[in-house]
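Record type: monomer structure entry
Structure origin: computed from sequence
Chain ID: A
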Amino acid sequence: MRAFWTLIHRYLGLLTAGFLFLSGVTGAVISWDHELDDLLNPQLMESHSAGTPQAALVLARQVEARYPDIRVSYVPLHAEAGKSLALGVSPRFDAATRDLTKPGFNQVFVDPVSGAELGKREWGAVWPITKETFVSFLYRLHYTLHIPEMWGIDRWGLWLMGAIAMVWMVDSFVGFYLTLPLRRKQAAPAGGADKAAGGKGWWRRWQPAWKVRWKGGAAKLNFDLHRAFSLWTWILLFILAFTAFSLNLYNEIFYPVMSKVTKVTPTPFDTRPMADKQHLVAPRLAFDEVVERAGAEGLRRGWDDPVGGIFYSQEFGIYMVSFFKPGGDHGSGGVGPALLYYDGVNGKLLGQRQPWKGTAADIFVQAQFPLHSGRILGLPGRILISAMGVVVAMLSVTGVIIWWRKRASRRVVVAQRQGVARQA
């Protein structure tokens, strides 16, 4: 049986090694996406005008007037001191071409005081890779591999990496099993003392699996790094694998299964079908009116945080209003901000999301991205996840080296046996 599971571990590991190496390296970097973006692109991120910032929604209308082929889709309502205002934009449907417009950018950065445009970029662009798009290129590479749309489907990368995460989950249990020591066949113990000694003996035989022989030579060091680091970080590795699966295959597997086996509160995005590009939903309520309604609703509910940002999805016809203080949208800790959802056509309140509130399943769903990114623990969590990215990459490399060396050894044995057979 152990030989069978060794074989399974070998080939599941080889199947996932390249993908996990790439995800580990990119994950270690994008844990610091905002900081790195600020460092690389001060011309976009910094504002040097002195004075009182203009209303963010006024600046958003100015951008839409300047670029009639786009719709502003996200507005952060409170600019941080010395920071620009980063507006998210989406293409409109062009009735003449029967297709979406192609503005070539999906973010516009403006000075919140003067209103001057500081620059624009295509977040997540595949090519060309510039310092403006480098961080977002890595971010999308991490979970989609930038696999393009084919046959009208743009989720191939999500599906592939979700499937790799499922294989990784299975392989994590197989690998853990293979670290356990073999059971020794012995006579039945005569008393409790013998049983206790037998238990200690089993643990004593398992202890070497947790240790690294730093001076045992390259082969032993490589093997020990793979085995010991897998054991010491096993819980974290499994959390990363599971959350990668849940995030990439949320609509396809995770949410449908969760809703079948437990009570999970759906968001409006879970219950409303997504419109195709020819039937995008134009809002009848402006950002201003929705912000006013949401602010009043937040006060009525006793929420402490102000309305921090507003997002409109023209694919669903839904406004999503988030509540946070300036800078709180970067994931400083917990499971994210409170949210209110509004219908973009009639202004009806469609639902809410409160951090750490709801059923156990609701909280479990809320925690998926914060767990995967480490943001659930704030800065210490991000440091931990960044380190785990390095560990995942290291385990991928050491696993391939173990396979390669054993493969070479098997070839030598086969060659020796063939030589003996020829001599005979």
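Annotation 1: The first strand starts at residue 70 and ends at 76.
Annotation 2: The two ends are 34 Å apart (CA to CA).
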